[in-house]
Design goal:
The chain is built from 25 helices and 23 strands.
Length: 867
Amino acid sequence: MSNLARDLRYAFRGLARSPLFTGVALLSIALGIGANTAIFTLVDQVLLRQLPVTDPDQLVLFNGPRNHYGNNSGGNMLSFPMYEDFRDNFVDQGNMPALPRVSQTVPNPAPTPKIFSGMFARRPVPMNVGVNGQTERVSGELVSGTYFQVLGVRAALGRVIMPDDDKTRADGYVAVLSYDYWRNRFGGDPGVVGQKLTIDNYSFTIVGVSQAGFDGLDIGSVPSVRVPVMLKAQMTPNWDDVDNRRSRWVNVFGRLKPGVTRDQALAAIQPFFHGLLEQEVQMPFFSNTTAYTRDQFLKGAVSLLPAAQGRSPIRQQLADPLKLLFYIVGGVLLIACANVASLLIARASARQKEIAVRLALGASRGRIVGQLLVESVMLAAVGGLLGLAVASWTTRVLLGFLPATGTPHVISGSIDYRILVFNFALSLLTGLLFGLVPALRSTRPGLAPTLKDQVGAVGGGSGGVRLRKALVIAQVTVSVLLLIGAGLFIRSLRNLRLLDLGLKTENLIAFNVSPTLSGYTPVRTKQFDKQLLDRVTSLPGVTSMAFAQIGLLEGNEWDSSMSVEGYEHKPGENMNPFCNAVSPGYFKTMGIPLLAGRDFDDRDVRYEAPSPDNNAPPPYKVAIVNESYAKQYFGGRSPIGRHIGFGLNPGTKTPIEIIGVVRDAKYTGVRDDIPRQVFFAFMENDFAGGAVMYVRIARQPDAAFGSIRQVMRQLDSNIPMYNVRTLESQADQSLLNERLIATLSTAFGLLATLLAVIGLHGVMAYTVARRTREIGVRMALGAVAGDVVWLVMREVLVLVGSGLTLGLAGAWALSRLVGSQLYGVTANDPATIAGAAGILAAIALLAGYVPALRATRVNPVLALRYE
């Protein structure tokens, strides 16, 4: 321990005596470690971190089959009756209380093993929450009574939702607040339990606050309020489906009993699941289906996904970009290590006599190596601390790329113990990595030549020079790889931004309203939407306004099986176009040209309540299709006047008349292909709900937001206006992955190039210094300045050329890694590769030319005396 303390003091004094060396080394280390720590912060929170619940490794997520007969609303969904089937047959009831059912049990006489200790269902839903007369839009969650029990999440105050709350339609309306929402919205008032609040125009009693630190199962958003799943009809007006086997809308999680593996559980539930399918095809709603549809349905299989990290679309969206960026910052760190190692080799050259004297006086090689490693590890440790500041700033920049959903993210830039451990381990490894080889080389001198002051005996010998040159070649190799990647990602992003979306995004703003969550009936909802449209359209600077059921470029979709009059579809053919319900003037507002027929107008408006008998009219009478749909099903013939209908069963009616054709336009995202689309008249729908409002203005978008909010307050202050954005920002947000990769790969590529150039300049300056006597002799014998420049630049060309050659070979080998992230450009694009290589070569040659130019100023007389 005393030796360590002495070595630390010695290292500190040595580094303090060389401020330039110490500053450059610390800067290189801080940038390399800081970049890696920042990316690891997101990798940890997005890809690695588990849920803060009891034994998260025991959790699994049920994933339903792709082949289903009915509707599906989201990823990894099952119907609620199917959840009850699994719960009642596979959960050990010794650990769970007997729970009621809301749907008819499908008989299954075969005994089933009790492989789960618990199971729950949940679904995220938006909520309009009113507190003290003020209504706000929050993220909510419908949960079964076993949700908190299975997760092992307790109440910080009051109680959580319990199995007794799982009643056929919930006798009492109860709600549990999240801990953060309780602190932020209610000021942490312990008297909140028992208070009333309004959710979607229903009165609820707050029964508790969930424990601190539990933010839910999706890292993309944090539910502020949780209510029993049996209240779905109240929380999703016009859409109940709790007892509908054909509707898949809940995520089902199970907790495996100790000792049961996922494979064992899957082997047990698969036969049971197939039994359910075989019994379902005997039910009346399958009576009109084709044999092909039934066969495909029976081929369905359920799967169990690991759920220790919950589920999140953001995790799936960011997984590949974060892995790629982790590789990139790893390359930056390697370059930084090579730079510091090169500096240490040069420093060892300056200390060669000191080390030789210590060895001659009897110091062991291991003792000196240890002392030199203490110095390098100290450098890395201080650089790592500085890297935390770099990481904190970089992480805040990274968080700016995440989608703005209007709800809080679990992802944060805070530095916790996991990040500190990573930073410490990386600093230690880095210190050993760049310090070990120079330390070993510097302790193998030729004592006699060194003590006689003959240059080149220790670290500055030919072996040290070769090592530094090898490090420069490695730096150039990694730098050109990163620059090529940055160039490809920039071009890919540019291609996407110049892509014709089929609509005009400039001066177009969007926001959402959901009157149905404030107690409005479908008829009143349509009336409210029409009033809002009339009021906003009359505002100064507003040129047009319209609304739609599905927002564009948001990743959302509505697709449905549809039959086409006179078209015989093949078995297995995709007959599911993407759909939307829009108001009159929608296509004009969005800048989508009408190519044939007419737009929706007042003839396509229905305000009457639906008839309670079976003679009610169809939900839609008319439709407009896009070019792709018309071409697919009608070829060169006009689709105007033709008919379509929902469903694919034989004899399906086609009562919906096609009245127009519009130009193709993007739907889910900028990068996605344009699908076949069918548009319906929003004002015909008897079950109209929330809508996305689009307003085109003749001025800057920000100026209109305040005026529109004022109109909303005048119409109904209890209906919140949320998710306010411009369509240009929405299109930009659709390119999250591409922007993240292009921006950061460019920044890290330039950083890597800067570090590589510094390394190259240092090596060549050191080489020129070592060859001062040789250069003086050459000049004394008549060499001119050009000869001296070429002498140095020849080495520079060899180093840069070797690095570029290896880098280009590496780029070809790694082309598959980046190919999936590109759009409109190949991973082996010659122009991008040539541009990146040319830029790096030019900068590197310039960095090498400076020492070469300095060599021409050597005084031959002084050079001949140089030692």
